[in-house]
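Record now logged underneath.
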Amino acid sequence: MQVSLSQIKDVSLLMVGRRLWNWWLKELLNLLPERAAEWLSDHGRAKLFLTPTERGSILDLRSSRDVLISSDSVDRNTLTLEAIDQFMRAHEVDPKDTDVGLLLPESLIFSRQLYLPLEAAGAVDAIVSQDLARKTPFKPHDVYSDYATVPGNPKAKIVVHQWIVQRQFVEEALSDLDIDLARIAFVAARATGPNGPAPYIKLAGGGDAPNRWLRRMTLAFSCSAVLLAIVAGSLKYWTQQVEMDRLATEIAIKNKMAQQVRLLIDQSQSRKSALLHLRLQRREMPGLLDVWEEVTRILPGHTWLTELRVAEVGAKHEEQITLSGFSGAAPSLVSTIDSSPLFFDAALTSPIAFDPGESRERFSMQAKVRAAPELKEASR
């Protein structure tokens, strides 16, 4: 049977995903106390192995990590379920969290291997069951069987290790021990060879299925909560980082625009100063057009004039302007006129009156015009 490259890739990705999950689960359990880790994990149940002997049985109590806790030999006359429970409690092991199994000689357990194609990964149970009925002399109702899969070989095959034990051997061993079959969770044997895992056959009885499912659900919810917390924290950090990057970009753009505006203002001020300097050089005294242009420049948009006069006053023949008109803020015009380098001594010549028709304040004021030397000093 030909195996396509895409199928091999799918199986490889599945194996990588399983390894990643096992690593994640191992790291999570390492963060928890040992008892909590054992209670949550699927392998968190201790195991008690009953090995039949001529006088009774040997009790081997092992932790969930297959570490020997205690071993004792019990006479057949004193071997009862109550004695087994007391033996476990004496070593601080809860009988409800312990699987009791029967340890038989490896010669009583038939072992075989099957090599299945990768396409059969989703139907291993059905294939193993059918192969047992067709290719072995055993009848399903006369035996207990179980199997385990191991990583494939270079030929891209699924390696299945199957173990079979006759019910008769199990019942005879339990009859000698006077133990009910319902209390037994598995049948096992010690591995004598380096090839493959040790025989381990799960039975229907003895297990605390609801409790085991509860643990699995608790573990799933715990992993989900931790995963969601990590995702939420990562998402919040990523969102904040994106926002900070966006603000940094906008600040850089605004700074560049502000520098350009400032440069334009400086250029405008430089041009205005140069223009004023040229005008001062062209004529000794500002003319009517100069006065008109300066008044137009400095007056705010809410102000308009009805009269503008330029006249010489005094013995020094100083120029004086007279302004009349309407404004939305007439009192502020005095400081506005004085701020100009062309005018000084601005003052109101009549009280400010509100005009209902124009909805503005009527004003009349005058100011003196600087001579050329004074204008040069003011422009510096």
Notes: The longest helix spans residues 209-282. The chain has nine helices and 14 strands.
